């Protein structure tokens, strides 16, 4: 068994979820997370004050997969989440014993 954790853009969540279900992955856990990676910081004006938004909103999806499902799951995530821009997300695969 493997634990696959992926962090994706929130706007890509419906596509990623649909791709996972098509790949046979039905059990997932979702979390809203904030992070900072390769994206540029966003500077906005709010009520006359300059606000630096260092962290970007993301969605973390976690799923446990048996060995035959690992590669199809990764390919499903890649095909649905990739936009070609910096900040598309990450995929982590870890062994899962219990």
What does this structure look like?
- With 98 residues, this protein is α+β, with helices and mostly antiparallel strands.
- The protein has one domain (2-95): Alpha-Beta Plaits.
- The protein has 2 helices and 6 strands; from the N terminus they run βαββββαβ.
- The protein has helices spanning 13-22, 67-81; strands at residues 2-8, 29-35, 42-46, 49-53, 56-65, 89-95.
- Belongs to the P(II) protein family.
- One of its GO terms (molecular function) is ATP binding.
Summed up:
The chain has helices at 13-22, 67-81, and strands at residues 2-8, 29-35, 42-46, 49-53, 56-65, 89-95. The protein has 98 residues and is α+β, with helices and mostly antiparallel strands.
Largest sheet: 4 strands, antiparallel
Class from secondary-structure proportions? alpha+beta
Instruction: Provide the succession of SSEs.
Output: EHEEEEHE
CATH architecture designation: 2-Layer Sandwich
What fraction strand? 35-45%
As for the CATH topology, it is Alpha-Beta Plaits
Per DSSP, the total helix count is 2
* First-residue to last-residue Cα separation: 9 Å
Low-confidence segments, given as residue ranges, are none
Helix content: 25-40%
Number of domains: 1
Query: Average pLDDT across residues?
Result: 89
């Amino acid at each position: 068994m493997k634990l696959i954790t992926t962090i994706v853009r929130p706007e890509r969540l419906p596509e990623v979820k649909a791709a996972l279900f098509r790949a046979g992955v039905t059990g997932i856990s979702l979390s809203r997370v904030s992070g900072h990676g390769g994206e540029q910081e966003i500077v906005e004006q709010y009520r006359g004050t300059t606000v630096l938004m260092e962290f970007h909103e993301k969605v973390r999806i976690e799923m446990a997969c048996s060995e035959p499902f690992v590669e199809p799951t990764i390919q499903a995530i890649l095909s649905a989440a990739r936009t070609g821009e910096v900040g598309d997300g990450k995929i982590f695969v870890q062994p899962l014993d219990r």
